[in-house]
Amino acid sequence: MTINALFKVNQPRFVAIILAYLVSSLTLVLNSYVLMYVVNYLKNRDLAKWTQFMLLELLISVGSYLFPRLATYLVQQQTQDYNHSVRQGIVRSYYTHNKHVKVPEAQNHLINDLSLVNDNYLSNFFFVISDVFTIALAAITLLMIHWVLLLVTLIIVAVSIYLPKFLNKRLINATNRVSTSNQKYLETLHNWLGGIDELRHYLAGSKLFKVTRYEQNKLSDAYVNYAKKQQLINLLNEFSSNLFSLILFVVAGILIKNNLIIFGTIVAIGNYHYYISGAIEDINFSLQGMKSVEELNLKLKEETSYIPIKDEKKKSGAIGIELNGLSYNYPDNHIDFPNLEIKPGEKVLLTGSNGRGKSTLLDIISGEKSDYDGKLSFKNQTRAIEDFDKLQINYMKQESTIFPGNAVDNITMFDTAYQKDAVKVISELNLNLNKSGEKFSGGQKQIISILRNVVNPSNILLIDEGLSGVDDANKERILKYLSNLPQTVVLVEHNLNKDLKRYFTREITV
């Protein structure tokens, strides 16, 4: 996720966000600037001018209330639109890279990771923009009032930023001392209490009490020292803050006495110091937040990269399969497959006892498993096919996904080009599939998954126990329909009677 990409989501709105933050900072600074004149005219008892500037102050106050909220609203719109495009990119990447997707990991990227980047990167970027505007406008205003006030304010802000870092070194040392003492105390307890039975047996309790009391006192001293340093630092921070405010007021008083600035400046100078110092602290905090999600941001960028899909029509036509010396190794099992040749257009029933590698063989043929030994080749009626990517293999696994929607949507996979074919095959098989995705029975889901692989063109159709939940009447209709398809069909099934086996060219047992 990048700021450049965020800008491109909606460029006019992005510019409007920047302008909204600019006006927000401007109203904040102007509020204190006008307040100077309100106080000044009140002191001079100029009721007319005081009324005019009070109305102006009220108008600016309304703006300072509205524009930050407008900016926040526009930022939400911009980031949500950007999130939508990022989510699309992630899903598109999963789809085009043809990689296995772990659902919890995908959900984490699409929801939690995006939220973290939004909060720590995108939002903080706009906070930095707002704070930069505030610093710049406050500095310009101070320069307009008097350059001495700007110089003194910048010096005080610099000291205010450095002083806590200097003091915190002492607090860090005190914290480390507490940690070390605590670790030493725990080690002492572990070393001595672990042998408490021997200590009790030999009446050596006094030594146990002496050692543990010594470490307890050291830990207590460390905590007291930490608390003392913390209170001292808080005291120094409060003292320095009050001292800096006093210095500002003294400098402003001197300038007022010499008629170099108006009296009302005395109420605004503290605000400008607060604006500049607060904005600098916020910028530092925001930049740390942005840096904290750099790695996560890079990961999301990788997840959104994808390969454009060429819009090519899928081609059907039978392709043969040939196995020579094929085998596959699992950590606890080795599977050897028989040498065999399945001719283009054959309908093969693959049987065998559990664990003999029927599903593994389909995984290998489909390309899902490539770390096998031996040779697997494909050929049509005239020549061998060396480019696996040119093959269209449809593979129905034992567990197929049914998506929300009706049967036709699930069969066509939401491609309207195949809608007529889906309706036609449902009609030819006289199937009752007038339900939605969540209401289909197990057998109906299997039928829909088979038809999905039938309607979408393929050279080879692999079905792994796709009829186990289908009743006998529908099972026969489907097998009869499959037997008339032009493509090569390999089906794994256990319990088919002789009448149903007649729809296959042959049966192969592994």
TrEMBL record:
For the keyword ATP-binding, the answer is no
Chain segments annotated as transmembrane: 14-38, 50-67, 132-163, 235-256
Q: How does it sit in the membrane?
A: Multi-pass membrane protein
Which Pfam families does this one have? ABC_membrane, ABC_tran
Keyword Cell wall biogenesis/degradation on entry: no
Keywords for this protein: Membrane, Transmembrane, Transmembrane helix
Q: Indicate the segments forming the ABC transmembrane type-1 domain, all copies.
A: 15-292
The cellular component terms of Gene Ontology attached to this UniProt record, alphabetical and capped at eight, are: plasma membrane
Q: Which InterPro entries does this entry report, sorted A to Z? A: ABC1_TM_dom, ABC1_TM_sf, ABC_transporter-like_ATP-bd, P-loop_NTPase, Type_1_exporter
Gene3D superfamilies in the record: ABC transporter type 1, transmembrane domain, P-loop containing nucleotide triphosphate hydrolases
Q: Which GO terms describe its molecular function?
A: ABC-type oligopeptide transporter activity; ATP binding; ATP hydrolysis activity
The lineage's top-level taxon is Bacteria
Supply the name of the protein: ABC transporter
- Show the taxonomic lineage: Bacteria, Bacillati, Bacillota, Bacilli, Lactobacillales
